[in-house]
Amino acid sequence: MWFAILGPLRVSRDGEAVPVGGPKQRALLTLLLLRANRVSTTDWLVDALWDGAPPPSAEVTLRTYVAALRRALEPGRGARAQGRILVGHDGGYELRVAGDAIDAVRFTELSAAGARALAEGDPVAAERHYTQALTLWRGDPAAGDLAAVRAETARLAETRLAAEEGRCTAAVAAGRHLAVLPDLRCFVAEQPAREAARGQLMLALYRAGQQTEALAVYDEGRRFLASEFGVEPTAELRALHRQILGHTVPCEAPPPRGLVGRSAELEALAAHLDGARHHSGGGRMVAVVGEAGIGKTTLAAAVADRAAAAGIPVVWGRCPDVGQAPPFWLWSQVVRGLLALPHTEDVAALAGFVEGRSPEDGGPDPAARFRAYDAVSELIRAAAGPAGLLLVLDDVHAADPDSLLLTRYLTTTVHTGRALVLATLRPYEHDPGLVATLNDLARGRGSGQLRLGGLDPAGVADLVADRTGGPAPDDLVRRLADRTGGNPFFLTELLAAPERPLPPSVRDAVRIRLDGPDPAARECLDVLSVAGRELDLHLLRAVTGTDAAQLLAGPGAARLVTEAGPGTVRFRHALLAEVTYAELPPPRRATLHARLAGAAADRGGLAAGEIAHHYGQSIGLGHAADFLRWTVRAADDAARRLAYEDALAHLGRAADHLAPDAATSPEAAATELGVQLRRASLLQITVGVGSDAVAEAAARARWLLPYTGPDTDVSTALWTLGEVACNRAEYAVAEDLAQRLTRAVTSDDELIAAAGPYLLGVVCYFTGRLGEADGHLSTAVQRLAAVDPRQLREQAGRTPALAAYNFRALVRSLLGDAGAARADIDAAAALAERGDDAYGRANAALYAAWTALQEHDVAAGRDAARRCREIGARQRMPHFVTTGDFVAEWAAVRGGEHGRLAAMRAAGEAIHRLGLRATLTISIAAMADAHLVAGDPATAARLAAAGLEAAATAGEQVLTAELRRVRGLANGDDEDVRAGAGIAAAQGARLLLARIAQG
Questions:
Q1: One domain, residues 21 and 116
Q2: Sorting pLDDT into bands at 50, 70 and 90, what band is 78?
Q3: DSSP secondary structure string for all residues of 694-757
Q4: pTM of the predicted model as reported, rounded to 2 decimal places
Q5: What is the pLDDT of residue 800?
Q6: CB burial class (10 A; 0-12, 13-18, 19+) of residue 982?
Q7: Same domain membership, residue 399 and residue 300
Q8: What is the CATH number of the domain that holds 367?
Q9: Where a domain ends, among 118, 146, 174?
Q10: Where the record puts its DNA-binding region(s) (predicted)?
């Protein structure tokens, strides 16, 4: 978001204005912005908002304003969700926003950067920073009339004056005294007491050859200071006055940096200049053709600098791009410039050019025009005779028809002299006169064209480095090149105002180009912008009902689009798409989104996520149900592609859309319940099975259950919620949900029927009831055997479908049947292959790792850890990577690398960092045993005690016998060891009994 307070308050999101309420509410937001990222007490806000005289209801009203601002600033925030932007604290509020999202903060930073650059001797960078800072101001600061912020607004106003003064100082130091003179005059007139600015005005006037006026400015300032304050000018200003009197002012600074990224083009034109100058009859005319902002005039100016340095006269003629110019306007400028050169003389045929009238104004003499043409040709030849000549005709696309005709005529005569005529123009194929001129330039003797495209990536990098003063990161270069097409003007403007997503100068320049296509072609461009940037032509035709390919190939449009692939068209660069989209009125924008979504839904051509996006942009037109349907479909598609983060983003949007109606609409509640359950399943994969994010999704799902209506099948919900409860070691809750699920199953769905006993088996395993666990899990395995493999593929990513084998492996391992445990792990892996489930494959490796921990099998642990890490990294499932890391470190320590004990403990802590509660005692038991084997009984005893405490808290009894064994051996406490043996016997954990018996 962007917050602008340097003028009337403005808030925008993605370039769109965000309404933030009436005057008081806007004033509140301004107060918070001026104290951003700091807590403002309620008392202070009330006092500030009502200027020290709050009404009795002020605090209640303040809360109302805060609630309204939260709705405006965070429209997708749930009703009970904690605010991320406007955050409540005990006794106050805080607005949390990045500093560079507030224009006042950005202004202060840019002003400081300008001051630093000026102090470091880089006036060009300083002027750029100051200019960027000052463009942020749009008027008096918002809420400046409130007493509480007067000091801050006064500081900003003073900083603004300092920035204006600094910009002028930097411009003079950079050699741009002529350009900045008008601004300096105005500033000194408005701020006569600022002596530094007065000194810069004196310096600029002196360097412009106006010594007398510079001295007058000093005298005026001296009189003002004496009459207003009774003081003399500063010593610095008096010293400058003496330097001007004695002509001892320091030399002018070097000119600003020049051309960037056009060295090859510059050398080509310099070669033309050389050829024209050194060869009699070598004159030539070259057209530099390119879109607005591509650098035509800058390139011509660089050639002019080369010519001037070589002693070649340079004459410019410019065409005003503001409507139809008078006849021969371009050539009138040129003729007057040529006549000022030596070796030229006025002739009667040139009188009309000199006096600013048409050569035919004396009457309808058919020959007069051609006599004038010949006279101009002869004048050019004469001016070029002594040293050559560079004649620059700038913006010829805006020339009047008569000037174009004369230009065409000269293509037949320019070769007789020693002049290079350089014409810059845009590729306006819709203008017949301009097309004819270009054709003549292409055919004329010595004539030619230079087509300027966008800068290549190397050129973009050079320009960015030149404008920012440092090397450009590759990713920034790629983004800018793609967004601008390498257009130097667009690049410069974007770099000058990085805080603005679409600078007005860029928007205006692109808007002019969008005026060229006819209405039908413009509609195609509008649809293309709604699509993002590119679209299949068949789909474009379906949306517009026109022959889009033919329309986009016509005059005006062809310059804006290009072929992206067979049958696909795209904007030439992203800025064209951005401006086209920004120009659409919101109602039309929504209509085009809906039409595009409907066409794609019927004919294909867009992914489900894209269709969902377009329906989402047209919800106000009655497409809420379409948006929801396609969003859920997009999530399913993403999950099948293992793009889990993308799937979660889609599901989050669906949940946000449904949340407002869930409490009043059973249908909305049931739909959101399904969405939240799917979120919980995917979050288990992406951030960890016991993470807080999973718990939050599950909590929302539990809240929704009563609102879904009596006819809603909640078995899937009970299944997922039960698993979440297990992962968070809430075993009593999980057992209750599992029993409810077992009772609720009435269908023939074997997958759902397997879930109840599966959950009961998991609870029994963790709570140490191994015999019951084996029975429940065996029932689940039997039911899974009857499930169609196609149904398993639809459940990819859902742990319960496959984990019955995995948990039974853990149970049978403790029961002392290692072979059966390995068989179950193999069966789980095979089941994952049948369903093509990457998560299932990773899970099989993970449970093989946990089994290795239980059995102290170092080799199996190493292998399982490797597979966990490989699959987790490849599929971007961090929980498997962290578990693999821990088991790998455990295996290393257990294998004799005792120096890795600390790394093992750190890896063990990482498993539970995201919120996983279950298995805590298992990992602690493994670490405690590793320390015991490594000869560190004190740490082993401490860890075992911590594990037993955690087991008592969570009710996780599965390895309490092992923890007792380790603690007893570490402390030399036989009673503790015997207690462990008793627990193992009661649980039926023959693996642990045998281990205790071995001592």
A1: yes
A2: low
A3: HHHHHHHHHHHGGGS-TT---HHHHHHHHHHHHHTT-HHHHHHHHHHHHHH--SS-HHHHHHHH
A4: 0.55
A5: 45
A6: middle
A7: yes
A8: 3.40.50.300
A9: 174
A10: 1-97
